[in-house]
Amino acid sequence: MSSDSVVIVGGGPGGYEAALVAAALGANVDIVESDGMGGAAVLTDCVPSKALVATGGYLGRVGDGAARMGVRHHVEGAQTDDPVQDLVPRVDLGAVNDRIMAVAQAQSHDIRQGLERAGVTVHSGRGRLLDERTVGIVGARGEVGERLSADMILLATGASPRVLPTAQPDGARILTWQQVWALREVPRRLIVVGSGVTGAEFAQAYLHLGSEVVLVSSRDRVLPGEDPDAAEVIEDVFRRRGMEVLNRSRAESVERHGEEVEVRLVDGRTVTGSHALLAVGSVPQTQGLGLAEVGVATADSGHISVDRVSRTSVRGIYAAGDCTGVLPLASVAATQGRIAVAHALGDTVHPLSIQGISANIFTDPEIATVGITAADADADADNVRSVMMPLATNARAKMDNIGEGFVKLFARSGSNAVIGGVVVAPRASELIFPIALAVQQQLTVDQMAGTITVYPSLSGSLAEAARRLHAVDG
After folding, report:
1. Least enclosed by CB within 10 Å: which of 78, 163, 215, 445?
2. Within 13 Å and on the Cβ side, how many CA atoms surround 268?
């Protein structure tokens, strides 16, 4: 067991997971966090946004989704037979956001209690490197108060929303995704600038909540970095449900004019609405950390440079999470943090491998991916085979009124090893796990196909896709 001192700057997934592992290994652990345990992932980003998506999805199920399955909502004395209009759910966005913030605070409280039970000392404030072995806790006026000495330092300060010089958020009508939780009424007409993961999730959530939504996408399609087949399904769903999607439309500026906002596009067009949500990426929170003074190397983007065991360029200083720019996922941040303390404290270490990391986009339907991408497969077409199974042929999908989605598998020619997959379906975040397990453990399509699935189930399509890959190999 270790008796080393570990100081962690940042209480998000990369920080608090590392703290728990370090404490379990016997280290004396201090963690410094300015906003609350869990960081942005718990307080303003991942947990709240997915809770908002879940609320919107619930409205969809009790509204026209239920009607399509023959469930009629009737109000006593109603004069209409329209199953949708008989009972229209009313969204109290203030109550929705209050609940979401309460969920976030409860999760933050639970994380802090877990840390304290493990013997971790929690400090409220901003941390800054004073030298290779010392972290200072910085006060509101920039003064350094308590100094914490460490044998190992982990920086896990996360990232914050990127804003444009010509699109400055005001927290009322022009908003980042961290500011929407103060809204008390559903935006009448919401313009979402940016069609990546964050933009797509929020655009659909507010569409479900009753906003008229315009999605401004600078690329040929929404979710430009994702599987093309999956992105096509989501964009079709967006349009069919009433969203206005503006492809190849880069925003030049966003301005507020009283109760309205105006988004001016590079081509001269303008789009007006009641609110604008900026979803144009994120920037690492590495300013003011003392990195340059201590000699910690950073990329031009400001991200801290790390290797596969989370080491920075300075011995004894590690970094994890969004401040490193490896992959902007809470699961990756947590893994990096755990790897860092294991390496520093002499425990068994498995360097980070992104090949087996699964990711999910919480649209409706969800998009989950793991392993190689379609672009990777196309570039190595002679050595990779793939198959795509639409969920429309799945019995459980029919029962659950699932009209969109598919399962796609990639396999290595010759070995038949499963090397990647895509799932577009409700709860794809759950369905991707068997594929991730196959990728991580280097299972073959025959091993996957030979595992008996429940009938009827959506997972049956995973086994069927694997069987089809075997058949292709003849």
Report:
1. 78
2. 0
Q: How far apart are CA 61 and CA 378, in angstroms?
A: 37
Three-state DSSP class for 390? strand
Ranges of residues in the chain with a pLDDT under 70 are 1-2, 60-88, 471-474
Length of the chain, please?
474
Q: What's the rounded Cα separation, in Å, for the pair 389 and 406?
A: 5
> What per-residue confidence (pLDDT) applies to 139?
82
Residue 176's pLDDT is 97
CA dist 264 → 189, 198, 272 (Å): 16, 21, 9
Q: At what angle do helices 93-117 and 13-24 cross, to 10 degrees?
A: 20
Contacts for 77 with CB less than 8 Å, ≥ 6 apart: none
The conformational region for residue 197 under phi > 0 = left, psi -120 to 50 = alpha, else beta, is alpha
**Per-residue pLDDT at 142:** 82
Rg (CA), the chain: 24
Any bridge partners for residue 240, and if so which? none
H/E run at residue 353: none
3-state secondary structure of 411: strand
Mapping DSSP to helix (H, G, I), strand (E, B) and coil, where does residue 447 land?
Answer: helix
**Do the beta carbons of residue 126 and residue 141 sit within 8 Å?**
no
pLDDT score at 49: 95
- pTM over 0.85? The answer is yes
* Distance of alpha carbon 190 from alpha carbon 206, whole angstroms: 8
DSSP count for the chain of H helices, then E strands: 14, 23
Please give the Cα distance from 56 to 99 (Å, whole number).
14
Q: How far apart are CA 468 and CA 48, in angstroms?
A: 40
The DSSP symbol for 194 reads -
Tell me what pLDDT residue 210 has. Answer: 94
- Strand locations in 39-158 (E): 121-124, 126-131, 134-138, 144-149, 152-155
Tokens linked to 154: 């982990």
Which two structure tokens, joined as six digits, stand for 190?
């919401």
Buried b (16+ CB within 10 A) or exposed e, 400-424: bebebbbbbbbbbeeebbbbbbbbb
What is d(CA 166, CA 255) in angstroms, rounded to the nearest whole number?
A: 8
Q: How far apart are CA 392 and CA 104, in angstroms?
A: 36
